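tool=predict chain=A
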Amino acid sequence: MEKGQRYDFIDQFRGFIGVLMLLGHSSYYLNAFWKQLNEFDPLFPSWGQFALRYAGYICAPGFLMMAGGMTWLSFHKRLKKGAHPWKAKWHLIQRGIFLIIIQITWVNSSWGGFQTFNPWHLGIISTIGFSMILLSLIVSWQWYYRLALALGILAIHPLLLNISFNPDNLPAKYLMEAFITSGSFNKYPIIPWFALSVLGSVMGTGWFELWKTHHKRVIMGLCIGLTAIGLAIVIRVFQGYGNIFSYSGFGTYSFFIDQKYPPSLFHNIWFFGIVVLGVTLFSMIGRVCPKCLSGFSIIGKVPLFFYAIHLAILGIFVKRIDLFYREGSILITLLGFAIMMVIMIPLSKWFYGVKLRSNNYFISMI
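tool=predict ok
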């Protein structure tokens, strides 16, 4: 994206999910409930603990979809400037490779406060990187071909989860966790999350090209988002194909949390709808009250910087120094979150200024 040319509602929504991500990470480091929480089959004692955990569930789908939308926009902007298609794609591939390197160097080690170097692990940032590389290969496709591909992947993924493998066979374990299921090597398998990235690119075609007016963007966003949520509810209610866990009753904790690691079909369709409605809502609010959401833009303009630095700070002070590591309650979690926001907002604003002024390749990638 060119400097000075931004879509405010996208920056604001990215900033919003960045804030929710920080809230989730504050809970991960400070909340004593994590001592008993099973991420692969979570049970919650209260709505407060449920809300803290569930608030972060939108982050991965949100970032994958935003990355997909911005990948489409970046590619077509470069084409309009006269760049050769493969040169425009190479820029996206470099960005994807950079994200993978950041994951295995900085992010993995930052979780523990840089006590050890841990390159043998994949995560959400590397999955975004792999998805960007794969998306660059199809970004020139018409939106309906990309939509068909994404829906096909989401429909087939539940079948792929039935593939049996021996976890003691390391090549099989790494291959399955890299692409299909979740485990210690990778919680974010590439195949289902890539599908959300592709869906984000489809939405990007609408947001940035097809829907010329704010009114059209809102109408289409509401229709698509509500349709996706309705479909997700149908998938969940019948507890058949596309579900991983059963639920105890409509509207209970277990109804909303099927599984994130790996994501079920219900999870992906549900949060696709939530993200589309969220972006639509931010677009609507921005037209009525342009300054109401401007604070989120500070974070949304430098999402990778925000992610990498807040994780490092929490890792160093909470995990490495053992400052209230998983000793607190909901209140302590919220207090820690507030302190981190006070730290990260000026840091993010400063770095965005640096990024605007700099022509450094490395800084441009962050």
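The mean pLDDT is 95. Residues 330-357 form the longest helix (28 residues).
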